């Protein structure tokens, strides 16, 4: 498919003169590195059930986050960023029943994708997070319950800006 797209660009009068170079790079084999420890067996069981192997960059991120380090992950789409930061979050939530997590995404589509991912993990692992989306579309009557009972809340930068002036109502969630 890519070859046919490249060929059509080469032959198209509009693009033909503008193409300086077309180079196809060979794919690289993925490099995996399994975790040495799983504080919660439910996480290992989930990974086995879904046939997920840990990439080396995910392994590094997981250990850094477990150490309490701040991490920035910049990798292509579908390269495992969510799993890399979610495993330590799930571990913390599984070990501490008062722990909470705030996931911030710039778009509704990403937020909904993550909700689906988290709900799937919840169902397969039997660890309850009561994950909910809290954004501009969240009905006012549902907001207090989400704020008070969810252990993972998915939101966006705009909504976070709206919530911060009401930090006293969020103190339980934000302090854990």
UniProtKB/TrEMBL annotation:
Residues 62-176 form the Helicase ATP-binding domain. One of its GO terms (molecular function) is ATP binding. Pfam families: DEAD (PF00270). One of its GO terms (biological process) is interstrand cross-link repair. GO terms for cellular component: nucleus. PANTHER family: ATP-DEPENDENT HELICASE HRQ1. This is Helicase ATP-binding domain-containing protein. It comes from marine sediment metagenome.
